[in-house]
From TrEMBL:
Residues 6-258 form the ABC transporter domain. This is ABC-type glutathione transport system ATPase component. Keywords: ATP-binding, Nucleotide-binding, Transport. It comes from Aminobacter aminovorans. Belongs to the ABC transporter superfamily. Signal peptide: none annotated. GO terms for molecular function: ATP binding; ATP hydrolysis activity.
Amino acid sequence: MTEIMLEIDNVSKIYPGRRGIFGTSAEVHALKNVSLSVRKGESFGLVGESGSGKTTLTRSILHLETPTSGSIRVQGQDLGKLSDAELRRLRSRVQIVFQDPYASLNPRMSVYDIVTEPLVIHHETLGLTNRQRSDRAAELLSLVGMGPQHLHRYPHEFSGGQRQRICIARALASGPELLLLDEPTSALDVSVQAQVLNLLCELQDRLGLTYFFISHDLAVVRYLCDRVALINRGELVEQGDCAEIFDAPKSEYARMLIGAMPEVKVPETA
Ligand SMILES: Nc1ncnc2c1ncn2[C@@H]1O[C@H](COP(=O)(O)OP(=O)(O)OP(=O)(O)O)[C@@H](O)[C@H]1O
């Protein structure tokens, strides 16, 4: 039986209205009864336009938002029911790579400090000595195709693609099984995007990772993902195997998104 890595079960999130000088704004239903499951070892894409709820769902998986209703389970563990200590342990197994490698690296930290920071944060769970930490730092850089000579350099000395490799190395430091990839290539030059996507594919094969890939770009999702869910205004409108959705989209929303990709043929409406 296929092992389930991540299960989102009927999750809704309502943000209360905000009070301002012109009165209180309406509440926002950012997620409406979202259900999906991600199998161990697969790449699952979540695609939607700006404001569709992708960030809210991602933050909920990281337990940075609490759903208004529904549950989220990682390897069968319900995030809403874990103790603080259990949550800390789980956090070392779920990591995120953000969209913008320029904004997500502290310019005052060396590459060594950046990639070993999660080892310090998760010290209780991982328990590495200083020597093991330093070996691990070199190993992490090598995993993302960079040499140990870069460990004592600073983010401003690197290109966008190299910075994203450093972000990936940091995300891998605690030995996660599930990586949330939040538009990891959209801030990069087109020529570098393919290199980073190839690296992600290689790492997945090598380390048996599960990817939850958030994007508004169906072309990238088609390249990387096995299955995909399309989200519109907080609701999942379609989900299934990538090949099926690309070849025979059922919803108007899927047709619209696919139609916006010049290189993908859109089947006629039935
Ligand atoms: N803290 C908040 N308080 C109130 N409303 C919020 C909050 N965070 C998000 N929203 C609203 O929830 C909806 C979903 O936003 P979300 O950021 O999850 O979308 P998104 O798909 O990630 O968009 P983008 O691709 O632009 O990041 C939007 O209408 C947004 O304005």
